[in-house]
Amino acid sequence: MRDVNAMQDPKEIGALSEDAASARAGAAALTLFKGLEVLSRVAKGDTTLAQMAAALSLNKTTVHRLATTLVDAGFLSFNPRDGYTLGTKLLELGYAASQQITLTRVSREHLRQLSIDTGDTVNLGVLDRDQVHYIDKIPGSRRIEVRCVVGERQPLRHTGLGKALLFDESEDVWREVFQREAALFPRYRYDLRQWLEVMRGYRARGVALDMDENEDHIRCVAAPIRDMSGKIIAAVSVSSVAQYMDDARIETVGAYVREATAKISAEFGYR
Q1: pLDDT (mean) for 259-268
Q2: In this predicted model, what pLDDT tens digit does every residue of 99-111 receive, in sequence order?
Q3: Phi, psi of 32 (to 5 degrees)
Q4: Cβ-count burial of 133 within 10 angstroms (0-12 exposed, 13-18 middle, 19+ buried)?
């Protein structure tokens, strides 16, 4: 008997594979949506499977499967007496969201002034797991604009923001960051020894640089923002094309960045 696939047009097989992948993606999206609905019902006071199933028009088995997954991930908690309640993971996310909203609100005018003083693009970023999360941007006034999108994430090792966010970490953590990102981005201007030496120098100066490391011909100068306890909560960078950022200007821009981050840190109680 001949293989059925052998008699099919390769294009037809490819189309079937794409249809299957699309169907799986659609099913995953639907499951995610239902999971979010379960969270919403618990937030509104539905603490039992029966209540959630009735409100969502789902059977108890489906609701139990979704709720169990959410409990495992920390988004819900469960005990037999109280039923389902919102989990600690949501507290973490809520706190992170409030921090970012507060950061952008408090920092905005300082970032705007920094952009006016330098004429360059100014970015505000926070540490999000193992990456820099860009949460605000003030465009520069130069003819050439540096590409950066609020909401995007970038590596730590390559970026000025990433390096500044790592200033208080131990050298063991620096090594871990370097090695983890080396596996993802093997081509880099520094080896581990050189990068550690560079990081020591940046930390001593209080300013980190990106010298064409993340994007060709783009240079950045960055410094951290600290809260009342002295903890680094964010970083600010000024980015420009290399023709506007020679060594002398890096020093000038670095002074502006340090001044801006000192003012923002003061608003968070840092002295």
Answers
A1: 95
A2: 666 888 999 999 9
A3: -60, -45
A4: buried
Count CA atoms within 13 Å of residue 121 on its CB side. 20
Walk me through the domains of the chain, giving residue ranges and CATH numbers: 4-86 (1.10.10.10), 92-267 (3.30.450.40)
**160, 95, 107: which is closest to 266 by C-alpha?**
107
Q: Is the pTM of this model over 0.85?
A: no
- Cβ-contact 157, 181 below 8 angstroms: yes
Residue 3, exposed/middle/buried by CB under 10 A (0-12, 13-18, 19+)?
exposed
pLDDT tens string 14-53: 555 666 667 677 778 888 889 899 999 999 999 999 999 9
Supply φ then ψ for residue 127, to 5 degrees. -80, 125
Nearest-5° Cα angle at 63, 57 to 64: 155
Q: How far is CA 22 from CA 15, 89, 215, in A?
A: 10, 30, 34
Beta-carbon contacts of 50 under 8 Å, excluding residues fewer than 6 positions away, are 60
What is the rounded distance in angstroms from the CA atom of residue 78 to the CA atom of residue 160? 43
Question: Measuring CA to CA, how many Å separate 220 from each of 80, 217, 257?
Answer: 54, 10, 11
- Cα(129)–Cα(22) distance, rounded to whole angstroms? 29
Nearest alpha-carbon partner for 150 in 123, 120, 116, 129: 123
Q: Which three-class secondary structure state does DSSP give residue 152?
A: coil
Residue recorded with tokens 């540490």: 127
